[in-house]
Amino acid sequence: MTVDTIKPDDLVLICFKDRKYLKRIDVNSTFNGKGGSIVFSELVDKPFGKKYGSYEIYKPTLEDIIMFGIKRDTQIIYPKDAAYICLKLNLKSGSQMLEVGTGSGAMTLMFSYIVGPEGRVVTIEKEERHFRNAKKNIERFSKFSNVEMINSDIFDYNGSGFESVFIDVREPWHYIGHIQELIRPGASIGMILPTTNQVSEILKAFEACNGFGDIEVCEILLRRYKTVSERLRPFDRMVAHTGYLIFGRKLSI
After folding, report:
1. Which residue intervals of the chain bear CATH 3.40.50.150?
2. Tens of pLDDT along 177-194?
């Protein structure tokens, strides 16, 4: 069995009790936290998934990177929602998809990982400040060179033939007509909105354009439990409402 070992410049997840830290291995640096110090050079060529002193060291998952590595200047989509979004958009290796509203780039990274090196993600962000931050996040954490980033208004983009589209902007109903032209018949469409009045507006837009079917509105709630065998109980706080998810499919008129 091949053992995955830590190398210089690797990302590592450092866990101490309920605290987690995402760090890059710099052999000239030391990590200092509540559990003491770790000299990074001493971790080189040691295996992931072991305890070093008071800390557990793991190879980070994509969820770890999104939750602890992404620099946010917009609210990111929680993993509980992100996984369902990818399922509903039918993303797989080789998929060609469009994202409208890059934000901080967290979903872009997830889309990139799922479609793989044979796939393509075109992501469009109108706000230059968000675009610059997302570009740094994607360049830092991306695994594949399959993301095309565009800093423009969606109305200025005229690509076509996408298998799916995800929209994360404040008023998506303004863009439905144009987006309808960018995706192929049967393509999946998804979006996230924080309030019910926004959901009502997008449903009205779907009805007006008469170009989408199989409409679904839902939300996902997540409750975690304390992992103490003698007193198993939920945490006092839970990740409840984070947004309404809306999905549909393009109809051929």
Report:
1. 72-250
2. 999 999 999 999 999 999
CATH label, 72-250, candidates 3.30.420.10, 3.40.50.150, 3.60.20.30, 3.40.50.1000: 3.40.50.150
Q: How confident is the model at residue 20 (pLDDT cuts 50, 70, 90)?
A: very high
Contact 124, 96 (CB under 8 A): no
Residue 3 binned pLDDT confidence (cut-offs 50, 70, 90): confident
Buried b (16+ CB within 10 A) or exposed e, 219-245: ebeeeeeeeeeeeeeeeeeeeeebbbb
Question: Parallel, antiparallel, or unpaired: how do β-strands 30-33 and 50-52 relate?
Answer: unpaired
Q: At what angle do helices 106-115 and 79-88 cross, to 10 degrees?
A: 40
60: tokens are 């980070």
In CATH terms, 11-60 corresponds, of 3.40.600.10, 1.10.10.10, 3.10.330.20, 3.60.150.10, to: 3.10.330.20
Which tokens hold the place of 205?
């837009």
pLDDT digits (tens, 9 = 90+) for 114-160: 999 999 999 999 999 999 999 999 999 999 999 999 999 999 999 99
d(CA 148, CA 146): 7
pTM: 0.90
